[in-house]
Structures are given as C-alpha cells and as structure tokens.
Amino acid sequence: DAGITQSPRYKITETGRQVTLMCHQTWSHSYMFWYRQDLGHGLRLIYYSAAADITDKGEVPDGYVVSRSKTENFPLTLESATRSQTSVYFCASSVFGELFFGEGSRLTVL
Amino acid sequence: DQQVKQNSPSLSVQEGRISILNCDYTNSMFDYFLWYKKYPAEGPTFLISISSIKDKNEDGRFTVFLNKSAKHLSLHIVPSQPGDSAVYFCAASLNNNDMRFGAGTRLTVKP
How far is A40 from chain B (nearest CA, A)? Predict the structure, then answer.
C-alpha cells in the first residue's frame, strides 16, 4: 500500500543503547519530517529533510541523528538513548504544505 | 518557545452543537495554517487548511477562520458528531517546511 510506513511500531530499550527508527514513503515526496509527541507539548519537530542528502534541525534535535541517502527513506537514530527520549515518534512527508503522517513508533527508554 | 499555542487542553460538546477550537500563534511570518485530527494509536490526519491571504475556508462541516491581526485561528465544527471526538492539532508553517504544532485539544462529542 502507498503511504508512510514506520518501524518498529513499539520499542523498549535501555538507557545508553542506540536505537534507529525507520521511515519509508512510497510517494517520492521531497520533504520528510520527524516529530515527537509528548503530553503538553503536542508535536515537536526533531529534524526535517528537503531532499536526499539535505537535512536540517528542527525544534528539538539534540540527541538525534538523521540521514537521507534515498528519497524514500528517512531513518532517525538515537545514538545513546535517554529516558527523556521516551515518546511517540511520527514520521511525515509533505507535498504542497500538507503533511502525511505515519502511524507512529512508541519508544520507551528504561 | 512555543510559537503555536492551543490553550484549551480539552473541550466537551453535545452532539449537534457547534465545536469551536482555538489556536494562537506568535510568528507573523507563518504563511500557511492547518488543522490535523488524531485518533488514538494513529498518526495525525489532515483536516483543513488556510493560507495567510485568506480569512476563511470552509469544507463541509468544518470551517477555519484566520484573524491575522490577532494572530488567532479557530476551527468550527457544525454540527458536531460523536465521530469527531479526537485530538485536534493546530499547525503553522513557513515556506512549506518547519511546520510547528500546538499542544492539541481533545474534543469529546457526547451523544
């Protein structure tokens, strides 16, 4: 099916471990985004990408790394997970200013 | 620094009545505003949008109003239906990237 696919949907890890959340889109949209959703904060932008090999920081980039070697993939890596990174992460792609979101990845850091 | 604010975390209305969700923003450079709807365990889905050059956009039961001088927008749902119960996020963007979201308002429509 066309759309945005995130994996894993659920992940439990320990403090200090590296975690990578995957995001794949089938539309070939230029822009892709990573958001985290936390109670009281809504959706906060972590990183975004305007095209392959072009990425930029959002509101809360610290502790995260992204890459975009192919247009359709935009993985998000937590190099050394912390408890404050426990959250629901949403990947999205964009066309004409409208965002299309994946179903989210719920990450728990113990 | 939250540039988009939804000051009401929750709203409860009766079925058939009007729901009004409010949103304020601080950055006058935002040029596009959107509302997203989110059900539990799902990603947000686009609902309606408005360009900064307009003051109203209507789509069926949903109408978004923009007051640029007050840096305020609102979403009206009329008539409200139980299936409208969800979390609604207001969003604002600049040049189609770096979209900022509010904290969300949980709408409950009671039968």
Answer: 6
